[in-house]
């Protein structure tokens, strides 16, 4: 049995690579089932966000190389290019990595809370795909429990620091008064919801939410007194927008260079601030070449994030210690589970011997023997049979020079205490 956590993230791969390795929601179930079918993986889950694509696996024997080859082939990448930015953690280090990710300790924004919800969604999708079994299931539950402890027992998540918050903070540097600005938000997921909340708190009066479905856009818009439109209506609103922040799961760009050029002409080249949080990107990279456009991707938010993270650094050490405790506890419980099958087999063996000796004692009684003789035979026969196989094996191990077996048996049956007694 081996646990594996492998993938890429914002620390090891650029946004260009991350968007090529990202899994869409529509791909997840099929990808998980294929992964378990064509590799030696028995249980699997996939976490795919803007900043990371990670596979969490349980295999009988460690074969990470095969999984990396599958991942490269699935996304039509060369294995060498993938290996250049991929990482592989195994067993206790894989457990620790998952717990650090869920606790926000491995995020671009230290302690950001969205990642825990994203990991829970990854677990739910894996269950739907039938790729999570008892071992990986236990690991996810332990991971969620540790992340919750980190949230409640440390100050890691007290301050409003996130990619969404960083984007709004950057907008405040571009525009002196956000309350005079209009914002266009593309998408209606968690990140855009946070962006809308931060913009609303900063006094932005007019917010437009564009989404593939009007229903979801309207549900979000109602929370902040915003206006909802479809993605197809973006050109009619773009020229009015001082701030454009996008985060969708689209595989193709939502905004091209031509559309932004037309909007700038209508704005008479009044500056536009744009943040593309999506992976793959929602806004064509060439838009950054236009005058009067300030375009940032998630990778550009590092400096803003770093400035806002200072208050969380002190809590990170305490969080790391909780993760270490969570990892040790889980591995200890896993080792205990490894003994369960052996104990079950030994109990079944002992109960079979008991039944055999009980039947012999009953036959003795039926043939006119005394109760005392039957009990003595039962005790003697059961003792001899229970001790026979261990005695033979212990003598064999001792003859082979494996003297540590003697010490193990003394610990196993608590014989040290009994031999010390007069």
What does this structure look like?
This protein has 422 residues and is an alpha/beta fold. The chain has three domains: 2-156, Beta Polymerase, domain 2 (2-Layer Sandwich); 163-303, NAD(P)-binding Rossmann-like Domain (Rossmann fold); 349-415, no CATH class. It has 17 helices and ten strands. Helix 10 links the parallel strand 6 and strand 7. Helix 7 (134-153) packs across helix 14.
List the helices and strands and how they pair.
Elements: E1 2-9, H1 15-21, H2 28-38, E2 41-48, E3 52-59, H3 64-74, H4 79-85, E4 87-90, H5 91-102, H6 114-129, H7 134-153, H8 163-174, E5 182-186, H9 190-201, E6 206-211, H10 214-223, E7 227-230, H11 234-238, E8 243-246, H12 257-266, E9 272-276, E10 293-297, H13 302-308, H14 313-366, H15 371-399, H16 404-412, H17 415-420
Parallel strand pairs: 5-6, 5-8, 6-7, 8-9, 9-10
Antiparallel strand pairs: 1-3, 1-4, 2-3
Write a concise synopsis of the structure shown.
The chain is α/β, with parallel strands linked by helices. It has helices at 15-21, 28-38, 64-74, 79-85, 91-102, 114-129, 134-153, 163-174, 190-201, 214-223, 234-238, 257-266, 302-308, 313-366, 371-399, 404-412, 415-420; strands at 2-9, 41-48, 52-59, 87-90, 182-186, 206-211, 227-230, 243-246, 272-276, 293-297. α10 (214-223) links the parallel β6 and β7.
